Amino acid sequence: MRLWLVLLLLSFPGCFSIQGPESVRGLEGGLVSVQCHYTAEWETYEKWWCRGADWISCQILAQTNGSEQVMKTDRVSIRDNQSHCLFTVTMEDVRRDDTDTYWCGISRYGPDPGTPIKVTIDPVGMVLSTWASPLSRTTTSGHARVLSDSYIRHHYILLALLKVPILLALVSAVLWLKGPQQRPSICMNLSSDLVRDTAP
């Protein structure tokens, strides 16, 4: 009885063979990167990334050829790192309509093992509210969402374009306001030294 239960569990997509994050978030115009881990027995098998909530009819967007070579189709690339038993999928220039359920999978004879991943693409203005409300980074089930690199990149862009110039402007204003107050005392000291030097 237990043997049948184990065999039944192993027949389900993703069971024990491949794992990935439950969900990832990305920012519109940025990129989303997902890592899927698999057991060592699948090293040389082809790995794939497909889109669609239905496991049977999902559309394959990128697939490896059994090697570690990077394979790219349109805005999606996939690379297998066989020595670490993981493959990485990168979606570039993501759009809001890229929000969907995706699958990491492995090609084999019989049912392919795979695991579902929910990808959510937020509008650009969403990044400010995300910083303001850290609690929004967690799902309703309490699991922490994996944030994409685009959030970090946009933070540094905001830092470079807004925060640094404002800070420089404030420092310049303080120095400019302090400057005229110090100049008369320097001039007075110089003039008194000149008077002292020219006095008989």
Looking at this protein, list some descriptive labels.
alpha+beta, 11 strands, five-stranded antiparallel beta sheet, 34% helix, disordered N terminus
Architecture blueprint of SSEs:
Blueprint: H1 2-11, E1 18-19, E2 23-27, E3 32-38, E4 47-51, E5 59-63, E6 71-73, E7 76-81, E8 86-91, E9 100-106, E10 114-122, H2 126-132, E11 146-147, H3 149-198
Parallel strand pairs: 2-10, 2-11
Antiparallel strand pairs: 1-3, 3-8, 4-5, 4-9, 6-7, 7-8, 9-10
Description of the molecule:
The structure is a single chain. The protein has 200 residues and is of the alpha+beta class. It has two domains: 11-147, Sandwich (Immunoglobulin-like); 150-200. It is 34% helix and 28% strand. It has helices spanning 2-11, 126-132, 149-198; strands at 18-19, 23-27, 32-38, 47-51, 59-63, 71-73, 76-81, 86-91, 100-106, 114-122, 146-147. It has a six-stranded mixed beta sheet with strand order 5-4-9-10-2-11. It has a five-stranded antiparallel beta sheet with strand order 1-3-8-7-6, with no helix packed on it. The radius of gyration is 29 Å and the shape is elongated. The protein starts with a helix and ends with a helix. Residues 1-15, 132-151 and 182-188 have low confidence and may be disordered. Keywords: Disulfide bond, Membrane, Signal, Transmembrane, Transmembrane helix. It holds the Pfam family V-set. It is found in: Membrane. InterPro entries: CD300_family_receptors, Ig-like_dom, Ig-like_dom_sf, Ig-like_fold, Ig_sub, Ig_V-set. Residues 13-122 form the Ig-like domain.
